[in-house]
Amino acid sequence: VNCNDDGTPPGNLGSRISGNAGPGTYYLMIDGFSSVDFGPFEISSIFVKDCVPLCDGNFCGSDGCGGSCGSCDVGFECFPADNRCYEENCEPKCGSLYGRSCGEDGCGGSCGTCDTDSGFFCLGESIVMDDDYYYYGIIPESSCEQFQACDHFNPVCTGCAVDEICASDCQCYSSVNDLPDMVIVEEHLLEETYIHDVNIPETSCSLIEGCVGAPGLRRLLRFTSSALNQGNADF
Questions:
Q1: Per DSSP, which regions of 63-192 are E strands?
Q2: What is the CB-side half-sphere exposure of residue 69 using CA atoms within 13 A?
Q3: Is 164 exposed, middle or buried, given 0-12, 13-18 or 19+ CB atoms closer than 10 A?
Q4: Which whole number is the average pLDDT over 161-173?
Q5: Would you say 224 and 188 are in contact if contact means Cβ atoms under 8 Å apart?
Q6: Prediction pTM value
Q7: What pLDDT, on the 0 to 100 scale, is given for residue 143?
Q8: Is the distance from CB of 144 to CB of 120 less than 8 angstroms?
Q9: Is the dihedral of CA 165, 169, 170, 172 positive or negative?
């Protein structure tokens, strides 16, 4: 019916599933992260009639079914913008002092937005907090940078020669040889894209395989993707 790996909350190596459960018998199967992770496991459940609690990525605030996704420790308060706990009287990490002109401000708000209609997008890493919601490391800078706007399904190129084609990335390529031309299917990205925090432990495959440089809390953008080949050759 459903499965999950590394859900937030609870975070760390915990998992969480949600969904509609009609009449019937259900079996819950739990597995450890690796050979060194085994029981006993701690399980909690919430059942609400005619409602599915939604707490993906939320550490506090309403679950949409009359319950709560969690509460904040003393000295912290829940910000409804992202349902996370921040220090009371939190100081936004924006402006020249922090070098951030766009993106999150570290207090549940934003340092500003970019003019995406003109091709400007916010570049910069997320502000990372530890398990106790305290900032660690250097606050990363962020700024609005301009990129060429490109409609991948109806690309427009400038300056292509007569023996070149305009590909899905709005760049010119030789038409002498048949080439694959891959484009991401936008609908699949929109259907399943979400953000959640994962604490990368010392035993994580992400660390061992070099996907991250050190253990700790990471904010991930997870999505389902598929590609369509609209070129003249196999990929």
A1: 76-79, 84-87, 120-123, 143-146, 164-166, 172-174, 182-184
A2: 26
A3: middle
A4: 85
A5: yes
A6: 0.45
A7: 93
A8: yes
A9: negative
